[in-house]
Design brief:
This protein has 10 helices and 9 strands. It is an alpha/beta fold and about 325 residues long.
Length: about 325
Amino acid sequence: TKRSYNFLARCARRSRYHCSAISISSKMSNLMWLAVVLPVSTHAIGPDVWFWGSASSASLEGLRNHSGLLKGVQIHYSISAGAVNTTSGAFIPKGNKTLISMLVQENIKVHTILGCASIDALRKIFAHPETFMQDAISEAKAIGLSGFNLDFEPYSANGGHTGVTNEDGMLYAAFLNQFANALHGHGLELSVDYFSNLAIWNLDVMNMSSTDTFISMDTYVQDNATMEAYTAIALAHLDPRRLGVGICPQPSNTRKPYGPDPCGPLVWDSAMIAERLGYLRSLWLDDSSRYRMLNFCCTGILTEAWWRGLGDFYASLAIV
């Protein structure tokens, strides 16, 4: 659309972005939730962009209209027992081969999100990870996945600060290293979503693993001072080259992430977007805090204000 602010034309002139639009059938509108990564020109300068949301026709149209801007798009796969058996901890294959094949044919890499909210199930995986990893890798190779995104959030009903121990955090980090190494042996990747308020996420030890990307859900917050504080925590404990900065671009009065602060209730206007992306620009331009990617959660559709803001963000990096 014209409201795409003519980015495809602009990026073609700059020769900095992969400007060809992707073509994806709207028949996928009622299919699985998954994570998607779109390749971009190797000449692009700036963080990757991942995007969470339903694989609806509207969200895919947004990707088509703005594909020249994106390297990575992560679409939300809701956390449930659909990926991890909450009794046994077994891997449950849920991939839609037809959908993934359609995406792969468009040169799109697909990362399925594995969610689990049960610490008991996770402890079973940590104790005997071999079968889980083998089953996951077999499924990835069978249906054409490029990797996995772990969204393990074992919070209890009373707020998540009981039941999970420091030992669980150590075991989780060890599992991440095992899983990442196993995936790398097959050309696959691993990313991990985290908050910083539960013992399962021992950031210092996690950072010692071979995990490809750590995605901060702390930074979903709207308040900039709070977001900057959470970013400082991430940079103090994680390699920025493997850091994904989470952004929650849609207002929410009902969705309550279990982090210290939920997605904000306000509609993001252009000034708010410019302030957030201005801060992220300053981080990117500093070699000591240059992060890997931006991660948009938890909707399949960005407003045109966000698309324009992202276009300005990448254009500003191009002229530095």
